[in-house]
Design brief:
With 291 residues, the protein is mainly α. 53% of the residues lie in helices and 0% in strands. The protein has helices at 2-22, 32-49, 63-94, 112-136, 138-144, 163-179, 188-203, 220-226, 247-251, 278-282. The structure holds zinc ion (2 copies). One zinc ion binds next to helix 8. Keywords: Membrane, Oxidoreductase, Transmembrane, Transmembrane helix.
Length: 291
């Protein structure tokens, strides 16, 4: 009974929250619905004003597919899965495991900006690591192929990914929060919005490298090579796995940026076999790939 209640409450809570966000009934800085739209329009505007690949259409290939993916992964799937996550939370709590169980770093009393910075860095590292696994574990790569099926790059490609990725990223993200004693800093929304904006930029048709900061911050030139069709020698699984930070790739020698024309072929060998539409991609990746 407890679990059924948790499922229904988790689900309805998320539906209500999303609806209130659409209706502007939540504090503006927690409004991810309109926040995502505003960030998207800003980055798209910059793409139109300062295009890197000038011949690329404003409505590039699969623009609308990716626009739909943004709302699907951020809101529709989040609603669908919210009940399941709530049940897991209650289930783990019944076993005495809560988000406070690990608590390796005690934040309390630290300056707010430092808390946010550490939260951002830890979360980014666990996501970088998960991303490496998506490339190295064959079963995970099948799902991650959806993100790598982008043939023409633009900001909205950021959120074209298989719904299973939400699930694969979750355990390590939760572990990251547990290390911090289950503590999301009060202003964590700054971190979340920054991550959305950086992710949009990484996929945007804008030549941006952040100057010397490129060794810390991921950027469109570096991430375009992450989507390269042909993998260079020495990087059989891929390179430039960074999410918001490029730091990890430089630390672990998985960085690779030979040039910056922006005109490389994107995708992966065999991408023509991946379903082209949303529904085909939705159920893709569960069957064992044929040799
Ligand atoms: Zn990837
Ligand atoms: Zn990408």
């Amino acid at each position: 009974m407890e679990y059924i209640d948790a499922f229904i409450n988790g689900f309805l809570g998320m539906v209500r929250w999303t609806w209130k966000s659409i209706m502007f009934e939540v504090p503006w800085y927690t409004n991810y619905f309109w926040g995502l739209i505003v960030i998207s329009l800003l980055v798209w505007g910059l793409e139109i004003l300062f295009p890197w690949r000038k011949e690329q259409s404003i409505f590039r290939k699969d623009f609308w597919l990716d626009a739909f993916y943004m709302f699907f992964n951020f809101f529709i799937f989040a609603i669908i899965i919210s009940g399941v996550y709530k049940v897991l939370e209650v289930l783990f709590a019944d076993f005495g495991i809560t988000s406070k169980s690990l608590s390796l770093i005690d934040f309390t009393g630290w300056p707010q900006w430092l808390q946010l910075l550490i939260f951002f860095i830890i979360l980014d590292f666990v996501q970088w690591f998960t991303h490496v696994l998506l490339h190295r574990v064959p079963a995970f790569w099948e799902f991650h192929k959806v993100h790598h099926s982008v043939k023409e790059m633009g900001f909205a490609a950021h959120l074209r990914f298989h719904w299973m990725e939400n699930i694969l990223y979750k355990p390590l993200k939760t572990l990251g929060v547990m290390i911090l004693g289950g503590f999301e800093p009060e202003q964590a929304y700054i971190v979340h919005f920054a991550a959305i904006a950086i992710g949009h930029f990484n996929h945007a048709n804008i030549k941006l490298t952040w100057g010397p900061l490129k060794y810390i911050l991921n950027n469109p030139v570096m991430h375009l090579y992450h989507h390269a069709y042909n993998l260079p020698e020495g990087h059989p699984y891929g390179m430039n796995y960074g999410i918001s930070l490029s730091l990890w790739d430089y630390m672990f020698r998985t960085n690779y940026i030979p040039e910056s024309s922006g005109k490389i072929e994107l995708g992966f060998p065999g991408d023509e076999k991946l379903p082209k539409g949303f529904w085909g991609q939705l159920v893709y990746g569960f069957k064992k790939p044929k040799k």
